[in-house]
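Thread title: Can someone regenerate the structure for this chain?

I was given the following input by a collaborator and told the matching structure tokens would be attached. They weren't. Posting the sequence so someone can regenerate them.
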Amino acid sequence: MKKKHYIAAAILALLLSQNIAAQKTFNEVSYSPKATTFKLNAPSKPTLRLYDAGRGGKAYKKIKMQQSGENVWTTTVSGDLQGKFYTFDIGKGETPGVFAKAVGMNGGRGAVIDMKSTNPTGWESDQRLTTKSPADLVIYEMHHRDFSIDASSGLVHKGKFLALTEKKAIDHLTSLGINAVHILPSYDYASVDESKPDVPQYNWGYDPLNYNVPEGSYSYDAGVPARRINEFKQMVQALHKAGIRVILDVVYNHTFNVEGGNFHRTFPKAYYRYKTDGTVSDGSACGNETASDKPLMRQFMLESMKYWVEEYHIDGFRVDLMGIHDIETMNLIRKELSAIDPNIFIYGEGWSAGTCAYPVEKLAMKANMKQIPGVAAFSDDIRDALRGPFSDDKQTAFLGGLPGHEESIKAGIAGMIAHPQVDYSKVNYSKEPYALEPTQMISYVSCHDDMCLVDRLKASVPEAAYDMDELIRLDLLAQTAVFTSQGVPFMLSGEEMLRDKKGVHNSFNSPDEINRLDWNNLQTYPQVFDYYKGLIHLRKNHPAFRLGSAELVRKHLEFLPTQDCIVGFRLKNNAGGDKWKNIYVILNGSRDFKTVNLPMGKYTIVGSNGVINEAGLGEMEGGEVMVDGQSALILHD
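Best answer:
Regenerated them for you:
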């Protein structure tokens, strides 16, 4: 018996040691003042080049690295290399490697720095925020340049990480009530020339170059490797102090290019999927797709996300085109991040942009989310049921008074779980529940992709294009569905200001005049901000809207008998310990008054005609209740 225990202990120790070693697969630079060790995973002997500058000039030293394991090469350089730059080369072109943690301008060379020197004052006491349930999150998706670049913002650090450290920015976010900021790609991306900071340049950033370094154009000096890191950390620190989580948008599904990219230049074919004819598969519709099912890519994703969590205190990740990644990898990511901090939230797009060179049943598609507990997916079901399909900007749905979308909205209200009153055969896309828990669903009606809500309403509802009152009514109605859903609510930055993008569908590289937020709209349309704020605080103040459990949702969420273009529901019996016994929400997408039957009794109105007031807007009796057209009615007894 003792012998068996001994053997078991030995095996466990071996597995643990292998796991620890695996976590250091991409530790490409280990710095100390006395010496720096370089390591690279590559199929052939690399040459290490050392430079004095981040760009230009010749290498002052070239070193042939030595093999230290299968496809692993190392070399140690004596002396203090802090402030020097490096590249690796296996004959495919120079590269900073795949896991550079600091780079020079435009990311062509890695930088040797002491990461501790990048920490702002007080960084050691900064920590991720705790979350009782993902249902408590209110996510605000933003692009750094959109948010602060316009003069109307009044912000000093326009287009920079540091804008989110300014009091005005923080006050705006906390007043609105959001508690998580989803920042569009903020790693080092390829499409903006960092050497021209005075030339207006715009890109969303979905073209990865160096995955584990902050983007230089959002820093005041991209040529100083430590500065972008320090400023990013200052941003995280300021948001955490304000009670706001930081969610990083990560794009592991493709790279800016293949042959010129770091993956190919370090280990050709180890990171990408290929078709049977030998050409690169393109499930991303961006020219390539990575292979999370292959050992190096899988380990890269694991180590990269853990690095952002540990070095930058990131609270969560939005996984771009998550449907390209395999289920096993996403489950490993969930497991390893939970071991660090179970509060870390992971969600993504449960689709690809093209056909992948991998079996679809093994991919992290929305339809497969039941196999990935603890990871959420965007619900295009509720999005398109509200505003119309992604494929046709001019086609309307519930918000345009078009019947037939009620069941899809009900599914979204329930959090895309199984519910006895939701008939999934009538849901637009998901013909069966995709979520085990409501927190596996992201509830939204707009994001950076596609038209923003105002532009979509103008394009699909003709009257909204010229009638501002109707436009605002529909906008507020849409967000009422989003924020009263049992899923995790998500909104695009600037919707609270009634932002538009001049009708541009895909503004990924449109100029600032298209993408920027016009902060003057806060004065022009104060009722919009007030409604969003009231709606968000209503959700945060009332646990009935964020039950977080499929069992509780089925117990307390009851849909009301309604007619076309009406969705009504009750959160009953002090749901989630709510102080209000029964909460009723009725959404009317029709232009006409509609009636809904409520049990007899006296009700307090807290939301009506574009106004939210938890203290009450008046009272009404039960029975046949009238609901204004293109409006939401919220009341309780």
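The first helix runs from residue 2 to 22.
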